[in-house]
Each structure stands twice: as structure tokens, then as C-alpha cells.
């Protein structure tokens, strides 16, 4: 079992015959995820530290994961300290860095180092790449059914795409589950084509954001970062695939992708989620400057759980405003 702190070249883990575990997924789906944060704070993590970092730390210990790939560039700025704290617990940590400038040479070097650590040859990695892309294609179809045919809810779209980061630890079973879901979704009657929202930013720490949004008569038809986890672009190689992946690079690369999808998916308004104490909060001012033709609601979350009253009221007001603007 190999854990990781955010999406990494999954192909290497699969080619090595290891079970991949996205620590974010096992943290947020844990029935006691609140407790995991409390335990991290009891261990000494500061209160004003990202809830995801604290959750990742406790989840790794609870699941007795002894080897973790820590993404030190291209994700959370606290990951380096997390990696050191995990080392203190006797856990083997393997650093992986996405180059800020998307340099092909640097990224190829990083993936090569990762492959060497797990004793994976280029041919084995390439075989795993083709295998996983076949599975990812089913999730791309789930995404298409969401925005083009209105047969999939925003929460279902979020779930399937976010799970592609580790394919729930078992790609073969994940593929079969995705096929079964697709067969069922294709038989559904289309959902009402109401207010169409985009969700951008890291996946939400709120547990009921999608459900509440749909209660209010709106639906998320674009989940930006979750879609990136599914590697939605046709690439010529494994290296190029992770150069096209926008999340770990600068906000302008992300915005180029976001703007294209907002237009294609006929988006009425944007929810920009930011995590408390995360550097990405600063990027909100760039997002608002670039997407100023659309209404934007910035929501901030700290700990896992349902929407608090203030956030829910803000969401209700935003949906009403966008409805009035559209009518």
C-alpha cells in the first residue's frame, strides 16, 4: 500500500504492483473525519493549519500506511513539513515535485526518479498508462452525461472524478463499477435543465454542498479540479499527460481550461471554493479578474461537515441572484 498527498503519476504505482491510496479520499470519507483533525491538533499541529493537512496526517497513521509519496511542489505549501512529521513517525516518504514552469525535461526527470524508486521500467509504466486511460475513458463519459445530457448529478460527477486519483485502490473493480453506473445513468430521464453552475478550486471539505445546491434548484455541471484528476486530455505520452494536467501549475494554466469549459458547458455562475489557511485563497482575486463576465461566489471551508448557516445563506442568495440574472 502506497499513500500519496495529491494526484501523482498513478501509472508508476500500478506498474509496481502496489495498492494506491489517496490520503485525501480516506480522510474525507472516514466516518470520524472530525476526530482525525482533533487528533492531529492533539499531536501538535497548529489550529491555523489547513484541515486537509491535519486529516492526511491522522489518516496515514490510522491506516498504518508505511510509505507515502509527498508532492512537495504543485500542491499544498505545508506538505514539506507534513513529510518531515511523517518521517518522525517512521514512515518512508518519497518526494515528488511538479515543475512550476511545466518543463518537460524536469517533469520527465521527476517521473523517472519515482519509477526508479519503485523499480518500474519505462515499458511497464507505458503499459500501465494505456491500461488506466481505458478506465479513465468511462469516467470521461460520466462527465459528458453530466453536462451534455443532464443524466448525472453534480455530486455523482464529483464522486467519480475525484476517485480517479487512486481508483479506490483497485482499478479493475473501479472500472467495473464505472461501467455499471454508466449503464444505469444512460437509462435515466434527463434532469431538468435549470441553473448550471461551475465548481472550481480544490474539492470541498463540506459534505453537503452539492445536495444543498440542487435543493435550491441549481446543479453543478463542471467540477474543475476533480475533472483534472481524471486526466481529460488526449496526450501522446505519459509525460505529456502530466504536463497537460493543470492543477499543479500556475493559475493561468488552470484558467485557460476553466474558460473553455465554462463556455462549452453554458455555465450561469461559478462557485470558487477556497480552503482556510491555503495559499490558493490569494488566487481568488485573479479568478475574479479573469472571469468577471460571470457571477462568482467564493466559499471558504475549514473542517469537514455540512454547510454552516452563514455559508448556506450566502449560497441561497447567490443562486437567487443568478436565477434573476438569467430570467
From TrEMBL:
Gene3D superfamilies: 3.40.50.11890, 3.40.50.11900. Belongs to the FldB/FldC dehydratase alpha/beta subunit family. This is (R)-2-hydroxyacyl-CoA dehydratase.
Amino acid at each position: 500500500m502506497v499513500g500519496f498527498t495529491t494526484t501523482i503519476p498513478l501509472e508508476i504505482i500500478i506498474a509496481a504492483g502496489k495498492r494506491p491510496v489517496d490520503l485525501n479520499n480516506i480522510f474525507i470519507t472516514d466516518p470520524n473525519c472530525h476526530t482525525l483533525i482533533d487528533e492531529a491538533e492533539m499531536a501538535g499541529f497548529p489550529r491555523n493549519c489547513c484541515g486537509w493537512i491535519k486529516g492526511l496526517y491522522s489518516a496515514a497513521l490510522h491506516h498504518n500506511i508505511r510509505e507515502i509519496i509527498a508532492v512537495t511542489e504543485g500542491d499544498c505549501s505545508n506538505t514539506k513539513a507534513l513529510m518531515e512529521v511523517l518521517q518522525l513517525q517512521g514512515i518512508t516518504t518519497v518526494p515528488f515535485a511538479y515543475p512550476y514552469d511545466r518543463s518537460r525535461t524536469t517533469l520527465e526527470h521527476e517521473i523517472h526518479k519515482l519509477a526508479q524508486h519503485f523499480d518500474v521500467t519505462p515499458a511497464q509504466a507505458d503499459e500501465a498508462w494505456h491500461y488506466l486511460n481505458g478506465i479513465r475513458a468511462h469516467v470521461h463519459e460520466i462527465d459528458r452525461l453530466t453536462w451534455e445530457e443532464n443524466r448525472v448529478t453534480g455530486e455523482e460527477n464529483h464522486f467519480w472524478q475525484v476517485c480517479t486519483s487512486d481508483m479506490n485502490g483497485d482499478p479493475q473493480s473501479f472500472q467495473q463499477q464505472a461501467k455499471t453506473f454508466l449503464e444505469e445513468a444512460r437509462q435515466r430521464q434527463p434532469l431538468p435543465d435549470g441553473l448550471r453552475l461551475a465548481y472550481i478550486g480544490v474539492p470541498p471539505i463540506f459534505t453537503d454542498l452539492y445536495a444543498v445546491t440542487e435543493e435550491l434548484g441549481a446543479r453543478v455541471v463542471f467540477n474543475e479540479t476533480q475533472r483534472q484528476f481524471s486526466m481529460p486530455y488526449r496526450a501522446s505520452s505519459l509525460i505529456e499527460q502530466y504536463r497537460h494536467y493543470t492543477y499543479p501549475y500556475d493559475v493561468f494554466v488552470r484558467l485557460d481550461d476553466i474558460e473553455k469549459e465554462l463556455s462549452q458547458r453554458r455555465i450561469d455562475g461559478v462557485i470558487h471554493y477556497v480552503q482556510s489557511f491555503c495559499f490558493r485563497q490569494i488566487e481568488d482575486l485573479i479568478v475574479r479578474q479573469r472571469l468577471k463576465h460571470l457571477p462568482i461566489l467564493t466559499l471558504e471551508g475549514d473542517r469537514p461537515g455540512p454547510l454552516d448557516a452563514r455559508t448556506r445563506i450566502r449560497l441561497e442568495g447567490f443562486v437567487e441572484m443568478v436565477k434573476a440574472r438569467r430570467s
